[in-house]
Write a structure and sequence with these properties.
215 residues; mainly alpha; two-stranded antiparallel sheet; 9 helices
Length: 215
Amino acid sequence: MNETILQGIYGPYVIDARDRREVLGYRLALLLAAVAQTALLLHWRLLGPQGLWPWLALLALGLGLALRWIHIYLRPLHRSLQVLWLLGCLGTGVMAWRVGPDQMIAALGQQRLWLLAIGPLFAALAGIGFKEFFCFRRVEAIGVTLLLPLALLGYLVGLLDPATSAGLMATESALLLVLCGRKFPMPAAADVGDKSVFAYLAGLERDHHPREQLS
């Protein structure tokens, strides 16, 4: 068995094959989201706003899978990011239905409030950036965390014009690619985190819900 035993805050824990698969899945999913976002911006810049929806769909898919396999100690925070992703997917679906998939970017230019529909999707991505900065103190992670909401909120409230907002998002996209590239050489244990903390928090949750132990 390919297992690694490590010492955590609340005792020893094991990094096993399942952990390594989940970490690899998380890294590949985040890379998919990063590539899709970069491709979307390049497509928009070089070919115009038509036909961007497949990149947005891939971005949502990669982000959803990343949130499936990410390891976050605080379950409410993890669930909150997943809820944001779900709201963003629903909002994107509604927008595509109302204006047509090929008219989504044009609609954003005509009506800034459409950002409220797709914004939660990018808020979840910014949340992953914050998690990566909090855990690893990577400069590119804080860039993702700050630039993405700055670009979208700045455009939403009218402080930024479309070109400036797009430039900030392009910088954020490049930083996300750097973040993804730097993750693959890291040991799986870095992304898994201290599993003894997960076990401790799970025990606290069971103590607060004793009836679940009887089922």
